[in-house]
Amino acid sequence: MSSRRNRLEVIYDILKAISKDNRKIRKTHILYKANLSHSLLEEYLDELIEKEFIDKISDSGKTTYELTQKGFDYLKEYKKIIDFIDSFGLD
Amino acid sequence: MTHIFLVPKWFFGYDVVLELLFSLVCILVSFYSYKIYKLSHNNQLKIFGVSFFFISIAYLAQSFINFAVISNLNKTISIFLKLRNVLIFNSIGLIIFIFLFLTGLILLVYMTLKSGSIKTFILIWIISLSGIFFSSRKLYLFYLFSSIFLFFINLHYFKNYLKKKKKRNLIMVTSFLFLFFGSIHFIFSVNHSLFYMIGHVLELFAYLLILLNLILVLKK
Known about the structure:
The complex is a heterodimer.
Chain A: H1 3-20, E1 24-26, H2 27-34, H3 38-50, E2 54-59, E3 62-67, H4 69-87
Antiparallel strand pairs in A: 1-3, 2-3
Chain B: H1 14-40, H2 43-70, H3 73-80, H4 86-113, H5 118-133, H6 138-164, H7 167-189, H8 193-219
């Protein structure tokens, strides 16, 4: 499996973790569920916020993350994305 | 550029339809690739989609030129553009086709090389296109370069198939093999009309396989 494929899978795991936990989740929970190092998770979260897959919400000193519509679309279409990448040799 | 394809008389018109079909398949792949790119932001998908878009427009341009040649439209266009004769019209059409098709192919090669540097693409693009446009045998060189690029794309798909051993990957290897052999036949088509027809038939098999692959993805 290539690194590109792994990247898409990690994104899937992060988004799945956020979607499962009442759609709002703290960073430590994502860290545990996605099984990533802290620095790597930071990198992914920054990228996902930038690409508008998730929103960062700061409320009373607590920071949580929630999925945007784009994030939900990614989860819904994940199999198709992987299938297309696989079929056309893009990984 | 003074080369014109020698086309078997009975094949006139069929080539126009086939090129339109190739253009349609390529635009479908490009559209779906872009759709998936918008969801995943995977850069490979963007390059793949753009490359098929260029190839699609190239076939559309070629189809239009061939249609113009076999119809009265050529006369109208020649008057409209104040072009001296059919030869100039064909030459411009071929230059557009070469530019678009090669750009698409080089993008595909760049994607398979996974260099990550845009300079790799620019380097191959400049060397290939300048080589062709300064050559006196443009068509020969164009199809030679196309065959070389398709050979490298085939290597990528063949390695991919060996790694995964899936039917879908085999379909892609086979389709690009057809495109590769089609391109080799086009090298000879400059002087032999039969090769022009064989080249188109091989391309038809290739694009039907690519379409089949796309349908299999969409069906899921």
